[in-house]
UniProtKB/TrEMBL annotation:
Protein name per its UniProtKB record: Transporter
PANTHER family xrefs: AUXIN EFFLUX CARRIER FAMILY PROTEIN (PTHR36838), TRANSPORTER AUXIN EFFLUX CARRIER EC FAMILY (PTHR36838:SF3)
Assigned protein family: Belongs to the auxin efflux carrier (TC 2.A.69) family.
GO terms (BP aspect): transmembrane transport
One GO CC annotation: plasma membrane
Transmembrane segments: 6-24, 36-54, 66-83, 95-114, 120-141, 176-197, 203-223, 235-254, 260-280, 292-316
Keyword terms, alphabetized: Cell membrane, Membrane, Transmembrane, Transmembrane helix, Transport
Coiled-coil region(s): none
Keyword Nucleus: no
Length: 317
């Protein structure tokens, strides 16, 4: 086994376990989770994302593997709809198959395993990840919901253009893509952040990884799997193993490889992101299944992530 893979994963497992234990011991209450999440997303994440991208020039970014990532995601999404039908339930499962926790778990994990270069690849993906996937998912959900309402009298017709435009706006004016875009624009000016600004951003960014992973453990402690374990297990298997397999196979078939593709394959194997639950909640479909899937995929990732990381660093990087 490649020892650096496990060395990189040990802090991730440890922080998640500490967060889980803290919640079980009631040191952190369920009512506080939202506040902790806001701190991570609204303060720490933008600081790290902006500072990292503020020194990166656009010509140094490689969008080729990122394009392969979205091609693989589209393939998995379309196959799910084809096999399970064009419904909101199928759309919820399809989104769960391809939308991972790339910020909370991906940033600290990729940073530990692949260093600064790996983070640049990951941030290149993150800068358009939510925008592309969530906007596309919104269109599919709206079309599927409209189809399901077609035979229900008295239901309002969806305003597709307004929904898509709102999704695009929300995808850009967001604490994840926005600091990446602003950081990239700043980098193109050739200016350097003054120390009085750079040092606080550095300290805030360093706090992101530990606190985000603690929050994953806390959230896991408050999640209930219950009778949805079997469907959740199927969804988690596709997300943590099936999607990275499709991505890696497609990338190598098209002649891509190297560390950038390895980073994206590992990213594809991350557990399901919380945004999937927001879609399930909004469209009132599979809420319990999606919640259970997030919990199961997070636990499963403790086993599957080392396997995917080992294979990716051995045969792709």
């Amino acid at each position: 086994m490649n020892s650096p893979v496990f060395t990189s994963l040990v802090p991730v497992v440890l922080f998640i376990a500490i967060g889980f234990l803290a919640a079980r011991l009631e040191w952190i209450r369920a009512a506080s989770v939202k506040d902790l999440s806001n701190l991570v997303f609204m303060v720490l994440a933008p600081a790290l994302l902006f500072r990292t991208m503020s020194t990166v020039h656009i010509e140094a970014l490689d969008f080729g593997p990122v394009g392969i990532y979205f091609a693989a995601a589209a393939l998995v999404f379309a196959a799910t709809l084809a096999l399970q039908g064009f419904t909101t339930l199928a759309a919820a499962r399809a989104l769960a198959y391809i939308f991972g926790n790339s910020l909370m778990i991906g940033v600290p994990l990729i940073g530990l395993a692949f260093g600064e270069a790996g983070l640049v690849t990951l941030f290149t993906l993150i800068s358009v990840h939510a925008l592309v996937l969530l906007t596309g998912a919104t269109v599919v959900f709206e079309l599927a919901a409209a189809r399901e309402r077609a035979n229900t009298p008295g239901q309002p017709k969806p305003h597709m253009l307004r929904t898509v435009l709102q999704a695009v706006k929300n995808g850009i004016l967001h604490p994840v893509p926005l600091p990446i875009i602003v950081g990239l624009l700043f980098a193109q000016t050739g200016l350097v952040l003054p120390a009085v600004v750079d040092k606080p951003l550095q300290l805030l960014g360093q706090a992101l990884g530990p606190l985000a992973l603690l929050l994953v453990g806390v959230t896991l402690a408050f999640s209930k799997v219950g009778p949805n374990f079997r469907p959740a297990l199927r969804v988690a298997l596709v997300k943590t193993l099936g999607f990275p397999l499709v991505l890696g196979s497609l990338g190598m078939a098209l002649g891509f490889g190297g560390p950038a593709l390895a980073v994206l394959v590992v990213t594809a194997s991350l557990p399901i992101g919380a945004n999937v639950f927001l879609f399930a909640q909004r469209y009132d479909v599979a809420e319990a299944e999606v919640t259970a899937s997030i919990a199961v995929s997070t636990v499963m990732a403790l086993v599957t992530l080392p396997v995917v990381m080992f294979l990716a660093t051995r045969w792709i990087a």
